[in-house]
Amino acid sequence: MMSGGAARRVGLSWAMASAVGSAFMAIPWKLANDVGTPAHSVFVLLVVAATGNTLLSMGQRLRGSARAGRIGLVDLGVAIGLAGFTLAGNHLAAVAVQEMSPSMMNLLLRSELPLTALAAWIVLGERVEGRFWIGTAIAMGGLVLLQGAPAGDVGALRVGAMGIAIASASCFGTLAVVTRAFIHKIDVVGVNAIRLWCAVALWFVFNDAEGIRHIPEAQWRYATMAALSGPFLGRLTLMISARTIEARLSSLVMLLAPVLTLVPAYLILEDWPTERQLLGGVVMLLGIAFPLLRTRR
């Protein structure tokens, strides 16, 4: 059995892996929505991620993994509840990213951090210490610096699009709190698979299935890349991190995503980071590290 410190480090490592997945999702997600409708991007995203989690769950059971427990009523209830927020969050993000850059979308999605911290405090009783708020303020300042853009670009953003992105962040923040509340009572991989298939079913309720036949090949390709990085590996590792660290810390570590997005943005879009972006990244790293590094007594 791991000590508290070791368990914490493992949890932070899982959260960091999720941040990497989120960063590498942003670019193909934007490209997918540039070549097709957001609803179809969400459909591909959910189907691919659900299939990946299902195959992983089947593999665990074939190997007799202790992690692959029986799916019970709690698992089903949590999965169905998360499915609604999954569908809403991804659809809202798909709509919002059409009006902004991937980096700007990542900036607004990080508004889930204070929302998650407050919700976890109220619902789960997870006390929010002063170091967390100080670190969050520093990190958010670095994020604004990193995402700094010409005034015309910021001014071009519609208030409606910003509101949609923040609403998407609220959905994902709810996922973190609910997951933390039930993490020790559920099979993470199984629940992740069920919630995604439930989200697929809900997609058909609100969308016309006829258009699926006309989804462009490029949209399938880009949305598949986004699915593997985000809802599959990214969300799965974030859920696993909830076993050993608080919801607010998982969300704080996810602030690494905008910094890491600079890498695929350069590799795919040839968008080299400016000095201001690099400085913002450093400030963000300092802010994220501040509440995570405990003082020695």
What does this entry show, briefly?
Helix content is 78%, strand content 0%. It has 297 residues and is an all-alpha fold.
Beta strand count: 0
Rg: 19 Å
Sheet bearing the most strands, described? none
**How far is the N terminus from the C terminus?**
24 Å
Structural domain tally: 1
Stretches where pLDDT falls below 50 for ≥5 residues?
Answer: 149-153
Morphology: globular
Global structural class: mainly alpha
Indicate the percent of residues in helices.
Answer: over 70%
Q: Mean pLDDT, rounded to whole units?
A: 82
DSSP helix count?
13
Give the DSSP E fraction (strand runs of 2 or more residues).
under 5%
Q: What is the string of helix and strand elements?
A: HHHHHHHHHHHHH
